[in-house]
Write a structure and sequence with these properties.
Length: 377
């Protein structure tokens, strides 16, 4: 990918670029908890967005996307927002840096990626993080704190892409470290690295290839439900809510809001249970919690779909340790905790049975937990 990007850059621009990359992410557990002040447990993966970038001494940005085969040019003022959706991520990052008093000048860039789009692996967060990291290095002497780079990506989603997301994806993409998952407290923003290298288990993603699209989607509605319930409870977020508190206001809120909040409150507990189990090396317990998350996401939070429920049932039937829908939902991947001895048989049966039912094989990605945003020398 590196060679392809550099070659394309040379064919379009005269300058010598620098190379940057940032990663997609997985999340072991803690879904839809980030914007509720809860805990998440993500890690960066070995699939990235990579960009070659060089300042161009103008006030214009020229970016070429190899994968989409499109070049977009835009200025750096608010009214210069490009229409192309992929370019808005980059424009948003520039604007958010400028709004914070940082520096962004004109630059030329070429980028490509190998994170499957719409699979719930946060290709958009990787794009934002890659450019935020690069612009920090190129124009700001790396004076912007890394956590702030994640917030710049998140603000880009809110202000330029129509998704009211939490901080998890951008955090994981920027802060990820090889071989380590991270537990982030999305209220205090404190985080801890957890080495994740079980001897007998591995994580496998099964991509249903049902494309998810979060913009203008039910995602924002889920968040609004949670915020309504928190407000009704007199809380800032659902972080401090409990099931008895929720039950006490059940007749005052809609059934839909009730079940959304119930999921979030239970999910918060599951993340803590998983951390505990990981410390003891109890992967069977981790797996159980993953199945419970899936059930909650499907029945209460209603962000699953037929294909993902089918994949989850199949994992359970095949005796797989843990399995659940991963990320925002509405399509994309399941994440599966699989005993290494079972991996081959699981992949074979999931491919066969899914194809029999839906006419195409799901895609399988082994998870390699890797570094987040970085400069490539
Ligand atoms: C998307 C959002 C994240 C998070 C997850 C669900 O990936 O971008 O902030 O809310 O959904 O856990």
């Amino acid at each position: 990918m590196k060679e392809k990007i550099l070659k394309e850059f040379k064919s379009r621009f005269e300058t010598e670029p620098k190379l940057y990359a940032s990663a997609g992410r997985i999340n072991l557990i803690g879904e839809h908890t980030d914007y509720n002040g809860g805990f998440v447990f993500p890690g960066a993966i070995d699939k990235v967005i990579m960009a070659a970038i060089a300042p161009n001494d103008t006030d214009k940005v020229k970016v070429y996307s190899i994968d989409i085969d499109e070049e977009v040019e835009f200025g750096l003022n608010e009214e210069d927002a490009p229409t192309s959706s992929w370019a808005r991520y980059i424009f948003g990052v520039c604007r958010e840096i400028l709004k914070r008093g940082g520096t962004v000048k004109g630059f030329d860039a070429v980028f490509a990626g190998n994170i499957p789009l719409g699979a719930g692996l946060s290709s958009s967060a990787a794009l934002e993080s890659c450019f935020a990291f690069a612009l920090n290095d190129l124009f700001n002497d790396n004076t912007i704190d890394k956590f702030e780079l994640a917030k710049i990506g998140q603000a880009t989603e809110h202000n330029y892409c129509g998704v009211n997301c939490g901080i998890m994806d951008q955090f994981a993409s920027v802060m990820g470290q090889k071989g380590k998952l991270m537990r982030l407290d999305c209220r205090s923003m404190e985080y801890e690295y957890y080495p994740f290298a079980p001897e007998d288990y591995e994580l496998i993603l099964v991509d249903s290839c049902v494309k998810h699209e979060l913009a203008d989607s039910p995602y924002n509605k889920r968040r609004a439900s949670c915020e309504r319930v928190a407000k009704r409870l007199g809380l800032e977020t659902l972080r401090d809510a409990t099931i008895p508190m929720l039950k006490a206001i059940r007749s005052d809120i809609t059934a839909e809001d009730y079940f959304r909040a119930k999921f979030v409150i239970e999910e918060k507990e599951r993340v803590l249970a998983v951390c505990d189990a990981l410390t003891r090396g109890d992967y069977e317990k981790v797996g159980e919690e993953m199945y419970a998350t899936h059930a909650g996401l499907s029945d209460d939070y209603e962000v699953s779909c037929e294909e993902l429920d089918f994949l989850n049932d199949l994992a359970r039937k095949s005796g797989i340790t843990g399995s659940r829908i991963m990320g925002g939902g509405f399509g994309g991947c399941t994440i599966n905790l699989v005993k290494k001895d079972n991996t081959e048989a699981f992949i074979e049966s999931v491919k066969r049975e899914f194809k029999e039912k839906y006419g195409h094989e799901p895609k399988i990605y082994p998870v390699v937990i890797s570094d987040g945003a970085r400069k490539i020398e």
